[in-house]
Amino acid sequence: MAILSFRKHSLRTRDDKRTPASELTLRQSIFPLCLGFSYGLLDTLNKHFQNTLGISKARSSGLQAAYFGAYPLASLGHANWILRHFGYKAVFIWGLCLYGVGSLIAWPCLVYRSFGGFCAAIFVIGNGLGSLETAANPYLAVCGPPRYSEIRINLAQAFNAVGTVVAPVLGSYVFFKEVGDNAEAIKNVQWVYLAIACFVFLLAVVFYFSTIPEITDADMMYQATFAEFCYTGAQVAIATYFINYAVDTRDNTSSATGAIYLAIAQACFAVGRFSGSFFMHYVKPRYVFLAYLSCVIIFNSAATTQRKNTGIAMLSLTLFFESVCFPTILALGIRGIGRHTKRGSGWIVAGVSGGAVVPPILGATADAKAPKGTGIAMVVPVCFMVAAWSYAVAVNFVPAYRDPADRTGAATIGIENVDRGAGKQNGSGEEVHKGARASEEVAV
Asked: What Rg do the C-alpha atoms of the chain give, in angstroms?
């Protein structure tokens, strides 16, 4: 299919229009998701802001509060409205533009070491990335054969996770290696955000001229939203204070060394996503989800009691098993909701706001147990992971949750009869797309 088209473009798509979206594969839908670098860089900056500006662990979590606090504003507000009225392509462009504006705002804030200003810039960036998550995740889950929805979104998120590996490595070996934690190190980061701004504005232009098939309501929760809130909050809290954990629990460990350990843990996270996608080819995704989340609780609990290299290893294994949870909750949560997919996905993505709530709780707990309280404070994400685990149990053992997921997973839409073309003409000349019609039947 054509990637770029320079004919007249429209961002509005009729909601009753049939599309061949049920036959699309990962090859056409993976490129919107390249957002991991921004999140990984944020975790690295958190610890260095503590050292450079002399702020507490709890206050430094303002970065995560600004970033993830913006998500519900996007997923339930402006991005969701654009998604329902104009479609996925418009939201991709909108999100990229917000991302670029926020990166430009971050530039002077880093130069003048303004933590409050940088938090404001991160809030704008969070709105941009929240918009992209609102559109990209359900797009991957719904666009293509329903049987492989969890595999598609986990595999795409695996490439996203590569960015979270690169960011702490870049921070350790480029930004902070020679200058440590002084003001010059923070200024070095300004050029990264300037480059990000240029890149995403260019990408927005490319998206405008790209051919991106829309998914309309003709093609096609609350427990999932609660699980996403608890899980994401715990995941973000662990990543945010991973460097603090390494410094507090392992003797003679600097922030730069801690960033290296974070990069290793994020590499485990990326490998976990690829492995989870592989297992989902042979085992039902809900089984993989339950097994991985159960291991998260086990290893996260172990990290609260272990120290030094053992504790870091336990926390790294926690990240490995975290890998499939976020995208699988989303994919399972929107199964079977048919024409409510766009609105429902907005609610589930809004659960990402847990990332604005849990890190401050962990930070405050660590400050209360100072000077080296991060280890015991890891009990906070354990509690939230247990709450998220309730959804994994429900989708595996409660028929009301389990049966819709299994029915959609058994569908052959987009797999059989694909080579017969996009559709046939009925007696009145109306185009009928078999995949789209079958998609509606499964969703009901």
From this structure: 22
What's the residue count for the chain?
Answer: 444
User: Cα(294)–Cα(272) distance, rounded to whole angstroms?
Assistant: 14
Mean pLDDT (the chain) is 77
Which pair of structure tokens corresponds to residue 268?
């485990």
Closest CA to 216 of 14, 28, 378: 14
Residues 185-206, buried b or exposed e (16+ Cβ, 10 A)?
A: bbebbbebbeebbeebbebbee
Question: What distance in Å separates the CA atoms of residue 214 and residue 385, rounded to the nearest whole number?
Answer: 35
Characterise 336 by phi-psi region: left (phi > 0), alpha (psi -120 to 50), beta (else).
Answer: left
The Cα–Cα gap between 73 and 146 comes to 29
Return the higher-pLDDT residue of 62 and 229: 229
pLDDT tens, residue by residue, 209-240 = 877 766 554 433 778 889 999 999 999 999 99
Indicate the residue type of 140. L
- Residue indicated by tokens 């670029």: 100
Confidence band (pLDDT; 50, 70, 90) for 409? low
pLDDT at 333: 82
φ, ψ for residue 424, nearest 5 deg: -125, 160
**Residues pairing with 425 in the sheet:** 431
Q: Are 401 and 223 in contact (CB under 8 A)?
A: yes
Amino acid identity of 344?
Answer: G
Q: What is the pLDDT of residues 83-100, one digit of tens each?
A: 888 888 899 899 989 999
Q: Could you say which DSSP state residue 398 is in?
A: -
Element (H, E) at 382: helix 379-397
Of residues 45 and 179, more confidently modeled: 45
Within 8 A by CB and 6+ apart from 424, the residues are 431, 432, 434
For the chain, the distance separating the N- and C-terminal CA atoms, rounded to the nearest angstrom, is 30
Torsion of CA 334, 336, 342, 347, to 10 degrees: -40
DSSP state of 171: I
Per-position DSSP letters for 49-99, written without gaps between them: HHHHHT--HHHHTHHHHHHHHHHHHIIIIIHHHHHHHT-HHHHHHHHHHHH
